[in-house]
Amino acid sequence: MFNSWRTSVIVIVVLSVIAGILIAVFAHKNRGKILVFFSVKPSISVVDMRVEWHRLDQKYLLVHLFDDHEDRNTEQIQSYRGRTKLNHQELQRGNASLKLSSVRVSDEGLYKCFIQSKSWNDDTTVNVKVEAVGRPPVITVDGFDHSGGLHLQCESEGWYPEPDLEWLDSAGVSLSSETTEKHRNTEGFNVKHTITLHHSDKIHCRVKLRHHMLEALIITTSNMFISWRTPIILISVFIVLSMIAGILIAVFVHKNKGNILLLYAFYVCGHWSS
Ligand SMILES: *[C@@H]1O[C@H](CO)[C@@H](O)[C@H](O)[C@H]1NC(C)=O
């Protein structure tokens, strides 16, 4: 009895520790820069012209304006503030490529560049695709089911476009997720998958997007699968003992009802008479 008590306490402590550990194999966050290309042909200087970059899919809002030999960005969309750059030297070679820094998921879309002088104009439309590698996945131990299976949950945030999440056992065999969830916010996609494990193993949770891959690992030991019974046995024993005690008390009270009353009457009488 004492041994099982100790085991169950240790199991609970071990589980809480595991639940708190975040296991990351490697992390990579894409905070990159992109170039939205546009060079006029033939490569004449556009430095004396008006160069406008707009979001074609967002009400033609202004992303960058170069006019009268200067960047004029007072009308620029708020979300592009301080993140756009036109290389003025390159403008002399007909290169009006726009450099975008601290790229966000919301930068994906259609851009239109319009270059104009009094006598000449040219334009182009560029479809910009953004890819974001999210944060390393985190595996959480989320308790047991009624048959003693261990619930595992793997979560990863900040991917774009939607990544693939896969569970693998130590032999590299793919395990199918029980539940899958995905949420989209301004930062990209968050994914969460669960599985239930019935025996100890080394489990990988892999999140993949094209050639990017992030992984987390959890090692479960056989102790986790045997010792789940201990608390249940303890509770059952407690319930059975309480029931037996209850029955014994009831029987005792029932059997001695007369005696107890008599004893009481005797005591009252004795008290009275003294
Ligand atoms: C255009 O200018 C950018 C810098 O703004 C440069 O990185 C790019 O290579 C240039 N493109 C061409 C075709 O020269």
UniProtKB/TrEMBL annotation:
Keywords: Disulfide bond, Glycoprotein, Immunoglobulin domain, Membrane, Signal, Transmembrane, Transmembrane helix. Pfam families: C2-set_3 (PF22705), V-set (PF07686). It is found in: Membrane. Coiled coil: none annotated. It comes from the Eukaryota. Residues 136-207 form the Ig-like domain. The keyword Metal-binding does not apply. GO terms for cellular component: external side of plasma membrane. One of its GO terms (biological process) is regulation of leukocyte cell-cell adhesion. InterPro entries: BTN3A2-like_Ig-C, Ig-like_dom, Ig-like_dom_sf, Ig-like_fold, Ig_V-set, IgSF_BTN/MOG. The chain crosses the membrane at residues 6-27, 232-253. Gene3D superfamilies: Immunoglobulins. GO terms for molecular function: signaling receptor binding. This is Ig-like domain-containing protein. It comes from Sinocyclocheilus rhinocerous. The lineage of its organism: Eukaryota, Metazoa, Chordata, Craniata, Vertebrata.
